[in-house]
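One such given next:

>
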Amino acid sequence: MLNVRDLVVAYGQSEVLHGVSFRAARNEAVAIMGRNGMGKTTLFKSLMGVIACRSGSIEVDGIEVSKDESYRRVARGIAYVPQGRMIFPTLTVEENIQTGLENAQVRKVPEEIYALFPVLWDMRRRKGGNLSGGQQQQLAIARALVTDPKVLLLDEPTEGIQPSIIKDIARSLNEIRRSREITVVVSEQVLSFAMDVADRLFVIEGGRLVHESTRAETDEARIKQFLSV
C-alpha cells in the first residue's frame, strides 16, 4: 500500500534523509523509532509533500505520488497527523473534524468517527483549544480519518500525553485497522506504544533506517539502546 524507495531529502545543501526505503502492506502497521533529530519528522513531512524530496520514489497503492502537491496526496489516500497535532483551537471539535471533509459531498461527521472516539461526541461543541493534549490527539486522528485514507501517518502521537490516554489511542488505532483495513505508519519514541500497535518496527538513525524487525522478533533491549541519548 505504501512503497518508499531510496528517498533523499535535503534542506538546502544539508542532506537529512540518505536513501530511505521501506514498505507497508494493506492493513499493516509499522513504527519508525528514533531519537529526536534522527529524521522522523522530515520523513513524514516528505511523505505528505510538505517537504519536497530531492530524489526517490513514494507509491501509494501502486501510484507514484512523490511529485504531487500535498492535497493531491490526500486524494490519493494519504492522511497525516502532524507532530503537535495542529488542531484549530478556536473551532469546535465538530468544526475541526469537518475541515477534513472539505472535498466531501456531505459535511456531516460520520457516526463511526464518534464511535471510535466517544469523548469527541461529548465535547463536539467545545473549542478545540479547550481540550486536553490526549483529546486533541484523538481529534487530530479523527480529522485525518474522515478523508477515508488508505495510509494514515502519525508523527509522534504520544508526545506529551499521559500513559492512560496512550493506551486509549493504541486501542483506537487497532480498532481502526480492524474495521477499515487501513495502513498505519507511526513515528515514535515510546517503545511500549509501538509494540502495542505495530507489526514491524524500524529504527532511523542519522537519516538512515538501521534496524528492522517484526514485533515478535523485536529485541526490546536493543531498540532501547538506539533510543537512549
About this structure: The longest strand covers residues 14-24.
